[in-house]
Amino acid sequence: MTVPTPEDALTSSAPVPDSALADEGYRAAVVDLLAAVAYGEISAFERLAEDAKLAPSLADMVELSTMAAAQLGHVVELRERLYALGVDPFAAMEPFRTPIDEFHRHTAPADWWEGLVKAYVGDGLAADFYLEIAGLLDESTADLITRTLTDVHHSEFVVGRVTKAIEADPPLGGRLALWGRRLMGEALSQAQRVAAERESLLDLVAGGVGRPGLDLLEMGRMFTRMTERHNQRMGTLGLAF
Amino acid sequence: MTVPTPEDALTSSAPVPDSALADEGYRAAVVDLLAAVAYGEISAFERLAEDAKLAPSLADMVELSTMAAAQLGHVVELRERLYALGVDPFAAMEPFRTPIDEFHRHTAPADWWEGLVKAYVGDGLAADFYLEIAGLLDESTADLITRTLTDVHHSEFVVGRVTKAIEADPPLGGRLALWGRRLMGEALSQAQRVAAERESLLDLVAGGVGRPGLDLLEMGRMFTRMTERHNQRMGTLGLAF
Prior knowledge:
Two copies of one chain form a homodimer. Helix content of chain A is about 75%, strand content about 0%. Chain A has about 240 residues and is an all-alpha fold. In chain A, about 45% of the residues are buried.
């Protein structure tokens, strides 16, 4: 997946030292973030394994299933870090289950193509968001998030399959372009829900002693960058936006 | 999984040289075997990912899903070898889809516990069978089959969970013991179906120039060993047989 590195995203004038984890509020926010990423990957596994059943061939089924397995592979390291931070990883994931499950319930693909676009565009959006936030974190946490969200190989598969399908059936492009906009809308609405409920994450974004925060202008720039990258991905798939 | 190594299984007095692959009949049998193992792992992935939904907790769900992902991970190497043997891996798998899918259709677990026992006992049976046959193969193919069927870590999870559950609820043990016998019966019936349809595999078992085969006595011993290992696994789970 073409995900930005933290270098492309938010840049803090002074990097957050690892010692920031001694601060209880910051630590709670890191736990929340890692747990959200971990549950996101677990549910991505479930959903991709399910969507793989829509595959037109065994080879395609195996390809999407392999993407599913890769997502789950990232969870191991996130669980270990959550343990190391002194929390039960699965208990930490609880607050994020409903919003993430809701996102998937509202965006269940109607066919194989919608499933592929969701895998590429939806996971890309989530990765963008977490990587932007990583710019506000200590290096060790930021590195972990970057590592667990970077997966280059499989996007070639999705891009190749979708662009060919649209070439063969142009009206499909119109339908999938609408689908991409809907994915963006649903993702934003669930993200807002999480932000409203998790004070720790709001505090993180606001900044603290020795930690940079985001003012409204920077927040706006962040959403602009995310929208641009979303549009880039849609363009890569050959979808008008 | 406690799977036997080829050393425990059939031992050929003279090992089959890698050059045996020049023989068309032998090569066809190797393609069949690798394709059967590969499709077995793919369908194991599908089934475990599905059975994971029965998990009583998110942690258990992730554990079974990780077993699913591990099965799929083995497929990469099998696909590469099939390509190297000059065949389309997915076309080679076609003849094995119906019998393996039928096995899973006939043994859909009614609950989480049946799913766990199936993961341990069913996959153990399949691994035993392929590893026995590996004793009749050239070293390079035998090594590949051994590598792709050996997975020690996760059996601890199944054994731990099942033995504790039976301790807490002894009647569950009786039900799961019956279930284990049914898995054995279904596996044998589908294996016979494959053997009857794939001449290449019968030729393999019969042996050829420079390749050892099995006479009836050795065939009988092979089934005895497989039954013994099945009973061992049932015993490890705390299931009477």
